[in-house]
Amino acid sequence: MNKTSLINAILIALIALLLNFQLAMAHESVTVGDYEIVVGWVIEPPVAGQLNGIEIHVSNIKTGEPVADVSSLTVTLSYGGESKVLTLEPVSDDAPGQFQASILPTIPGQYMVMFGGQLGDTPVDAHVEPEEVAPADTIQFPVSYPGPQSALPEST
């Protein structure tokens, strides 16, 4: 392998590591007894008006094993005094301990995920603030026009 190829390979590996690190940082975690709950948005960054979901990963800290049964855990999403109880669904049979609940965040800002109920014999009362939901204009293009379609400029 020549020197240029080696440098390119190292650069690609470094970029991949940095991107993975940033994704992991967008998730928050909370420890409750022997359990760790990691929470984040399914699609990051979250944007108001875009279908998304809350994902959680639950594991037993002592054993390192994922927790496959969270039926006694309640998960509530809260924003501006309103709250909605989420229904968690397993991500897949191949991903024990990973769950999602679909949600459409309609307003930009900071949402809160609250946990209650139990994990095993451990009572759960915790909350986490996942990454802030951005306004839709951060990804909208082109700028929408308030008038009729005929008011749009012609494309070239």
Strand content: 25-35%
What's the total count of β strands? 10
Which parts are unreliable, with pLDDT below 50 for 5 consecutive residues or more?
A: 18-24
Give, in spatial order, the strands making up the sheet with the most strands: 1-2-3-7-6
Q: Biggest sheet, in brief?
A: 5 strands, antiparallel
Subunit arrangement of the protein: single chain
What is the helix fraction of residues, given as a range? 10-25%
Given the structure, what is the number of helices? 1
Please state the CA-atom Rg, rounded to the nearest Å.
Answer: 20 Å
Counting helices, strands and paired strands, the structural category is alpha+beta
pLDDT averaged over residues: 86
The first-to-last residue Cα distance is 47 Å
Shape: flat
H-E order: HEEEEEEEEEE
3D architecture notes:
With 156 residues, this protein is of the alpha+beta class. It is built from one helix and ten strands; from the N terminus they run αββββββββββ. The protein has one helix at 3-25; strands spanning 28-32, 35-41, 52-60, 73-79, 82-86, 89-90, 98-103, 112-119, 122-123, 126-128. A five-stranded antiparallel β-sheet has the order 1-2-3-7-6, with no helix packed on it. Strand 6 and strand 7 form a beta hairpin. It is flat, with a radius of gyration of 20 Å. The protein starts with a helix and ends in a 28-residue tail after the last strand. Residues 18-24 have low confidence and may be disordered.
